[in-house]
Amino acid sequence: MLQKIGFAPGINKQISATTAESQWIDCDNVRFRYGTPEKIGGWRQLGESKLTGAGRGLHHFVNSKGRKYAIIGTNRILYAYSGGIFYDIHPIKSTTTLTSAFTTTNGSPTVTITFSGSHGIGEQDIILLDTFSSITNSNFAAADFNDKKFMVTSVPSATTITITMPSNESGSGATTSGGIRVQHYYPVGPAVQAKGFGWSLGSWGGTATGVATTTLTSGISDSATSGITLTDATLFPSTGTSFVKINDEEISYTGISGSELTGVTRGVRGTTAAAHNGGDTVTNTTDFVAWGEAASGDLVLEPGMWSLDNFGDKAICLIHDNAVFEWNSAASNAESTRANIISGAPTASRHMLVSTPDRHLVFFGTETTIGDTSTQDDMFIRFSDQEDINTYTPTATNTAGTQRLADGSQIRGAIRGRDSILIWTDTALFTQRFVGQPFTFAFAQVGTNCGLVGQNACVEVDGSAYWMSENGFFRYAGKLESLPCLVEDFVYDDINLASGNQMVSAGLNNLFGEVIWFYPTSSSSVVNRMVAYNYFDSSSQRPVWTNGTLARTMWRDSAVFGVPHALEYSAGVDTSFDVVGNTEGSTIYYEHETGTDQVQGSTTTAIVASISSGDFDISQRRAAATGQSTGIADLRGDGEFIMKIRRFIPDFISQTGNTQVTLQLRDFPNDSQSSSSLGPFTVSSSTKKVDTRARARAVALKIANTTTNQSWKLGTFRLDIQPDGRR
Question: What is the pTM of this model?
Fold first, then answer.
């Protein structure tokens, strides 16, 4: 006989598939709406170009002229997006004019640029070349360099850098004439977060002077003590016991003959001698000072990140642990101008936002002495005078001020709430409430053991803040509460918190009442999974969660552009529209909840959405009076009988295209699932019934789509089942 099969909303991965009778246990690209699962909406690339590096900041606002802007910060470049076009507004750190500074070699794509003094440029930094007049003895032309951005390939010395062209030099070697201007972009940081141990090459806890790098002219074996020759040894100590590092090996030497190290000892300072290749980087570590032993704790090297907001027409842009900049969107030539440093503001801060409606610019984890980066305190807060983002010194006549929080080791993040700013440390939650003079803000601790996992792992909606901690999900709406989560073990067992906490980001999809967290799994250094909480459909008895593989580094809701926007990062070597020699991957900017597919440029790809249930099994109903079997199947069974399924009646509330339905069979919980021999079954909007031959002790249902222009919203399926014996 036909029986309806119903399932509770949301995914439950806290129990086994056998225990999860009448529940869903897994999904991808699916949401619940009014208690029913459906495929999520599609997404479409905005703009025609890929952006350089990993997207680590996204902010939307409308200026006083009614123009909509998205400010996008990657770990290399700051962009403004409007009207389908990306504008480079990244601030310039230094500008140098050179003469006859280029060197090329026949058969090589490498271009060496020589400065008259120390350049302060690092590997993978971005430079812009312009006012390039002429070049001879080369197949490269001035147009190949002029007004072009390049990613720095290597830094052989304090006075030289190299860039890589798309093709090899076929001429005898370049000769340049006239002035060449090199503009160095403010560095932001690495694309991914890394975990380090001990002191290694870094100067953490010590000092570093005389830092220089070059390359090996040729390869060396793991035992060679001669023939270790540097490409440029001019900045390396030539007397006394000195040290260099090649890859993971440190080498001591006592002198330099020409460019060859003499008095060499291999594998010093606890490192192991190894073979190295010609062209490997050689770093002077002579004056690096640490404490002699590896640190007992772990050192997290945080990724390049942004804090973005707007102060009226001005976009406010903070580089994580660095300076803060402003860009005036209302200027007559806004798109052709760059962000400039905010005078008088702190020069090293972890996070920043604009308080509303009182309009103070607030810095978190910032300097106790403005302009002195050595005084940066991860628990210190500084805010500007009201309506004045250039004044930070408190006086009797202004509202500037400072505050240091007590619970935690660092401020992790902050967002605007309904009536206060919410501030998280790594252990606690605080509120910052505007009270006016003489105190300006009142601070209060409202939670403990609930710290924020990473800077972007929190959102606020309708007076409630949601966030991810290192030990669970939380909500604050006047009181602190733990957020029940039926996929919690699944997420925390596989999330990469050891070296990826700052990669976690939260987004709000207010069109469907969803808070989404994107995170890297243990096997990944980049974001590759998501988990979402539906605050529309959730109840105290049943929280509604979903999981999936949608990977976005940043997400912003529909408040400005009408639909959510998000950033997707692809690591590795990938081209971008504006940087020659980019090796750090690229970011695509998408709008979501549009159509049924994913559209990147001119390519349309299906969004594969699926949902799978727990197992259901049967027994035979028994008469209440006698306890005798009635011969009627009961889906609320205990697996006493094998079940035979002869047909099912599909039911979709809405459907575009076809949907694949699979009956997944097994006899015992530890058996692998197998699909019905006639399935999977293709169901269209006109399908009335599907005949099948399925026989098993336990059956699960899977709904999926596989091709473009398909969408679905599930109704209530009915199965024609009967008991078929105990064996």
Answer: 0.85
